[in-house]
Amino acid sequence: MALLIFAVIGTLAGREEPRAQPIPDAGRKERARTGPKGHFPGPAPATVSVIVAAYARVQHIAREAHSRSVIMSTPFPLPPIVYHPAYSAPLSPGHRFPMQKYARLAQLLEKEGLIGPEGLHIPELASFDMLAAVHDPMYVRQVLDVAVPAHVERVIGLPVTLDIVTRSQAEVGGTLLAARLALRHGLACNTAGGSHHAGPKGGSGFCVFNDVGVVARLMIDTGEIQRALVIDLDVHQGDGTAFIFENEPRVFTFSMHGAKNYPTRRGPSDLDIDLPDGTGDEAYLAELRAQIPGLLEHVRPDLVFYNAGVDPHETDSLGRLALTDQGLLARDTYVLATCLPFAPVVGVIGGGYEDIDRLANRHANLHRASVDVWRHGLAGRGRA
Ligand SMILES: [Zn+2]
């Protein structure tokens, strides 16, 4: 029965289908409307045992959590998805950062019918004040003025052009919008985000601004949340986020990553799990199951930030953990299904370095898993 609950994806009954339109072009600041039709593939057979186990655990946790929280019904038939046309900024041909994956991901989500009838949610750009609350104000000024010194640009690994600056501000704004949608509806995902190497001093490792860092800081400061848990499963350690919240007890940073991977200078996470090369699906998921429930009990977050980086994949050019596509989907489903009874979750896609189409398909797993848990009522703990 539990299997059926997770595997059966029904059609949306009684809903008028708006006319499908393509993903918006750069510069159009409006919500794209998309058709809800489309085939949504259920979990692959190999993930079933993991998912069933997760669901059994969740049912138990949910009964406890629901007794101490207010449940709201969500008005959306699908979890909100945040996208900005600036996410895929132009880069010179041959640059090793797969910048086009964001637009390709949005197109794929539209094709699979995973975007709700309200369309994609388009964020505002992050402001100087928001960014300077966690990053050196002089660095933020240089970036926004498109005047970053060459040696700083080299550390970032991207040319800091106006397009890249806009993209970086949009990404932070996107994670903020997704976080606020998550508080309201229980679950929401950005189609970018997870720039976790940017730290207090500045950018690094393809990351200009740390979207999760900026957003968690802002939401704590505004009182929107009291405590946050960062679950960072990108294959690289979340060093920037760890440094940003080194002395902030209200944000707990958990990073599980490849032991031999970038960065060489690690940040002081509240909990780091180093995994050996070639870990594989089974050992990886076992480690996750050993950590997440205890963290939720310990931290009792008002909001979980989930970095679902796909670079632990076996064919990723920068990852070394040998996870399969099925393993990554099982991971995302497990994290969402386990966290949601405790707290709203905002998902960001994190890293992934490979062919654009494969990457888009891999990043879509976060959104497929989101739809799955959403349709089974696990995302009901928003606070309206
Ligand atoms: Zn990474």
TrEMBL record:
GO terms for biological process: epigenetic regulation of gene expression. The keyword Hydrolase applies. CDD domains: HDAC_classIV. One of its GO terms (molecular function) is histone deacetylase activity. InterPro entries: HDAC_classIV, HDACs, His_deacetylse_dom, His_deacetylse_dom_sf, Ureohydrolase_dom_sf. Residues 18-40 are annotated as: Disordered. It holds the Pfam family Hist_deacetyl. The keyword Hydrolase applies. Residues 95-360 form the Histone deacetylase domain. PANTHER family: HISTONE DEACETYLASE (PTHR10625:SF32), HISTONE DEACETYLASE HDAC1-RELATED (PTHR10625). This is Acetoin utilization deacetylase AcuC-like enzyme. It comes from Brevundimonas variabilis.
